User: What shape does this take?
Amino acid sequence: MNLNSPQFRIFSSGEATAAAVADYLARTLKSQPCLRIGLATGNTFVPIYAALVELYQAGGFSFAEVISFNLDEYLGLPQDHPASFSAYMERHLFAHVDLPTGKGLLPGVEGDIEAASRDYEAAIASGGIDIQVLGIGRNGHIGFNEPGSPFDSRTRKVELAPLTREANSGDFPLGETVPPSAVTMGIGTILDARQILLVAIGASKAQALHAAFQSVPNPDCPASALQYHANVLIFCDEAAASTVTAS
Ligand code: F6R
Assistant: This one.
């Protein structure tokens, strides 16, 4: 497979990056009302969804015909637990836009996880994903594909890396620990998307961006698999971009 260079869009601050991502998504939704979009959670996307909701409220586009697929979800948390990605999506996006109930999908986490993962893959494959948005972990993870994840992996149960559990512990009430496992779209699932938009904000992401795009792809840095995709757009701030060369 050929290696590709992503296109970088670098902004002076995290706020400017978030505003630009929201603007890009709003424009895409205007031109493609039936968008099939892959969504991410995490701190990076809080200001992005806030800006997107503001643009939505100003009018001009709708989520009425959109289908969304979230990247991942913790295992072992009730869906209404405040730190679940289901609750996150409701809080930051779904409650504020006209996405029909049942069209914002998260990978199944109850019952037979393998069967739920296969169903999720089938739902995605029925029309593909037009644009997949991604954050990046400090260890280079995308979705919850931790270092060592095969580049052809599909939706499945995974164990979370200690660094990920530490990074996400702030989302949990005092005294609660981050679940050890989760369900995530695979790297292969992500690479099937027609376009990928990765967002990295802050100096804590600089090393991961460097490992992902400045060296040969290696499963030690899951995001480096994105070099095999021909249509990757990276929105980042100067702090995150400090170790990469703009192209
Ligand atoms: C979230 C996800 C993760 C995050 C990543 C960065 O759905 O799949 O890969 O995008 O851990 O998280 P933040 O933005 O909190 O630094």
